[in-house]
Structures are given as C-alpha cells and as structure tokens.
Specification:
With 485 residues, the protein is of the alpha/beta class. Helices cover 37% and strands 15% of the residues.
Length: 485
C-alpha cells in the first residue's frame, strides 16, 4: 500500500515552538517498520509545509492510507483538521492516528464523526504494520491488538505488550524527511538530528504521563545498534530524546568507549536526572570527550518539600551538586523549573534567588499543567478552568492562580526577562546571528528572537493561541476535559 504519514501543524505558535523544531522521530520509526513490511511510505511535516503542499503531496503520492501523529494535547485540533482535510480530498482513503496523547486519551480523536478509522494505541511500529494488513484484507480492525476504533473505544482495544527487544525494530527512516532536515534545530543548534537510545521511565513523578504510557518500564537498545544509528547521522548536532539518558550505566559506558574508539564527535544534547549526574560523574566525563556539551536537568523545584510534593525523588542538595558537577566537566547545565499556579510573590522571589545564586544560564520554565492520564490530573481535575486544548502548552495557566492572572504572567515573563541568554540587541546576539548566517541558518535566529519576545512579554500570555486550520474550515469546538482513567 501507499502510505502517507503526517506531522500536523504546530498546535500553538507561542514560545517554545519557536525554540525547538525537531524531526518527527516517531513517524520515522513507524515509517521504517512500514517500509520493511513492503509498503511505499512518505512523510509530510506540516510544521514546514502548508495546506496547499499537503494537497499536492496527496495528489502526487496517491496514498491508500494516511496516518496523522497526535503526540501532545495541543496536537488534537491540528490532527483532527488534517484528518478532515484528507477525508474531503480523498473520500475513500483509510485514515489512522496515534501517538502519546492519542493513546492516553483515545476519545479525543476517535468518536462517531471522527475523520479517523482507527487509532494505533501505544508503540506504533508493530501495530501499524498489522493495521495496514487489516486495511488491505478488509478485516475487522478491532481484531488487531492495539487498535482502537469507534466500535471499541469504550471497551478498549485488545492489549498489545510493549516491544520486549528494541533491537528488533528497524532504525528510523530519516531519508523520509530528507527535504526538511536542514530546518530542524534545537535552540541555536542547527541543523540537528534526533536519536533514541531507550524508551520509558521507572520513576513516577505525579505531573508526568511518560511512565504511565510505558508502564513504568525502561528498555534500551544495545550499544551496537545505537552506534550504528549514531554513525549514520550526518548532522553536526544530535539530541538524544530519551526521558532519562544514562539510567543504566554499563551500556552507556560501553557505547561511550565505542564512540571514542570510532573517533566519533558530534555536539550532543540529552535529558537526565540530577542524581545520575552526581552518581556517574566519570560517565559524563567520558561522553564529554565524544561531544556531549549540554544537558537538560529536570530540577523542577528549589525546595525539598516541593520536590517531595511532585514525587521527584531527589533533593535540593543533589540538584545543586549536579549543576556544579556538569560545569566542572565542561558541560552546560540547562535547568528546567515548574511554576505552580498557586504561587505567591514569595515563591517567585525564592526561585529567582536560587537561579541568581547559581548563575544559571538559559533556564526554562513551565506552568504546572494537569495533563489527562497523570496522577496530578486525577487529583486536581475539578479545579480546571480551561477546556481549550491549545492552552495546555505548559506556558498558560489552566488552573486558578493565587495571584491575579495578569500579575502571575508578569512574574512568569520576568523569569525569562532576567535570564534570557541574548540581549536582543547585544553582542552575544550578533555573534549567534553571524554563526547561524554563515551556515545559512539565519531563520533559526529569527525564530529564537520571536520566542524570546513572546516569553518576555506578559501581555502575550493573555492572548489565546491561534487555531491553525485549513482554508474554509470552521474552528473546532473545545473538547470537554472529561474524567479519564
């Protein structure tokens, strides 16, 4: 079958969406599995292509089936718009969706008048192949483990276990996004590729749904498979997408030594926990020698009682030591913090004091958001005051704020104003612009400036995100935030 996989338009054009634009790695993994099964596959990234380009690709590729990603809550409206657009353009085409949010909240995308025939629940590689076979053979879709349709959305799909051996899955088909790859970036690092070494998380932070999606398990590819993947990447920058990199020391030590023996060197960015940095300092030193230059740390909170409240299972002393350890090694620590809607002035003051004391460079801040599927959502769902999914972008408050909302956003924006890496007209900005322009990536600099202007301006937070829809389409009614398991 001819299959078209689509990354929908960004749900919101605010803040972080201009800081990062990474390749659709999930679609590349599914695409690789479908290619291996003998299908003709193409990918459209609508963060870079418009509706007219999608129409042209549909007409030129002539797909028998179309899959649309729905990873985040802000993807729901764009995914539904894309599905409806494709249905109108090609009434007989088979359609399906899948992804993190679609799996946790299937009712959001599969319902009686849904533009999708089916939803791939959980990991997509194996299920998507079997779903396409069912499409081709006109079999009941509900007979495929892991497939949700309007007929079984209430009772649930036949369960499909997580893939036991990640090495059994093909590596991502990055050639399917070849025409876009020069436009993918992480911050000012461009062009940038993504790589996955492991899936899942064994921890249970109450604000996070990753561990729920992966059943509180973490599985890793073998060092040999990861080495093969890394050495196939041509971009100078690599972002490791694991939720917790370096969770299991032995394979990462083996991989680091193998990369060093291969004289491999790329600028590598990853995310991990503070306690792992403290515990495995020498491992981070090894990886520094093959290009690890920046690490995102989920610091989240500055006090032990706040860390305990979100079940972070670390403490202030460890977090502070991790930041200092990375600096000593020569790796940039990028600390991420969560801002509670019920914070008062003193809470913002305490965070600002912590950041200034550690002289943190370019920290990131998100508003604590109750995502469906999380323990936090179940505890707080009755207090949610917003049902527009585009507002669930982690920079808008969807719960009542203790401070007046205008003042809350003033303090939130001030965090970025005080810690922004670039003075918009300063020397650092000019150096960054020159570096990106010399590599024909000045567009990245413009996107970053746009993001900073948004994040530093409290007035922008009071404007609702704009719903991106095809020409002539009506806006979608906001989904009710229903009670979910």
């Amino acid at each position: 079958m001819k299959v078209l996989l689509i990354q929908p338009p960004q749900g919101t054009d605010f803040g972080f969406t201009n800081v990062l634009r990474v390749e659709p790695l999930g679609l590349e993994f599914v695409g690789a599995a479908l290619l291996e099964a003998g299908h003709d596959v193409d990918i459209v990234d609508m963060r870079l292509d418009g509706w007219s380009q999608l129409q042209a690709r549909c007409e030129s590729h002539g797909p028998d089936a179309v899959g649309v990603a729905c990873q985040f809550m802000t993807d729901v409206y764009p995914a539904l718009h894309v599905g409806a657009f494709v249905r109108t353009l090609m009434p007989g085409v088979k359609t399906f969706t899948g992804g993190h949010h679609a799996t946790l909240c299937p009712h959001d995308v599969i319902f009686e008048q849904s533009p999708f025939d089916a939803l791939v629940h959980g990991e997509g590689e194996v299920t998507a192949v079997e779903l396409l076979a069912a499409f081709g053979e006109n079999r009941r879709l509900e007979s495929v483990p892991g497939v949700v349709t309007p007929a079984n959305v209430r009772t649930g799909a036949i369960a499909r276990p997580l893939t036991a051996d990640l090495d059994s899955l093909p590596l991502p088909a990055r050639h399917l996004t070849a025409r876009y790859r020069g436009k993918y970036h992480q911050g000012s690092k461009a062009p940038s590729a993504c790589a996955e070494t492991a899936r899942g998380c064994p921890y249970d932070c109450n604000f996070c749904s990753v561990w729920i999606f992966f059943q509180r398990r973490c599985r890793m590819r073998s060092p040999e498979t990861i080495l093969r993947d890394f050495t196939s990447i041509t971009e100078p920058n690599i972002f490791i997408t694991d939720d917790i990199a370096f969770l299991h020391r032995p394979p990462y030590e083996t991989l680091g030594r193998a990369l060093k023996a291969e004289r491999f060197y790329r600028l590598i960015t990853l995310e991990t926990r503070c306690d792992l940095v403290v515990k495995h300092r020498d491992l981070f030193e090894l990886w520094r020698s093959v290009g690890l230059d920046s690490v995102f740390l989920g610091v989240e909170k500055v006090d032990d009682y706040e860390l305990a409240a979100v079940r972070k299972r670390t403490n202030r002393e460890t977090n502070t030591l991790a930041i200092r350890t990375l600096r000593e090694i020569g790796i940039r620590p990028y600390a991420a913090f969560i801002i509670d809607p019920d914070w008062g002035e003193e809470d913002f003051d305490r965070l600002e004091a912590y950041i200034e004391a550690l002289e943190l460079e370019q920290p990131s801040f998100t508003v604590l958001t109750p995502f469906p599927g999380t323990d936090y959502y179940r505890a707080i769902k009755d207090r949610i005051v917003e049902n527009n999914y585009l507002m669930f972008d982690t920079v808008h408050a969807v719960l009542p704020t203790r401070l007046p909302i205008e003042r809350f956003y003033e303090r939130f924006a001030r965090l970025y104003d005080r810690t922004a890496r670039w003075d918009l007209g300063g020397l650092a900005a000019l150096k960054t612009a020159f570096r990106l322009a010399s590599h024909r990536h000045l567009f990245v600099f413009r996107r970053l400036l746009r993001a900073l202007r948004h994040l530093r301006n409290p007035a922008t937070y009071l404007e609702p995100p704009f719903e991106k829809r095809p020409p002539g389409a009506h806006p979608l009614a906001p989904h009710p935030i229903r009670q979910r398991a």
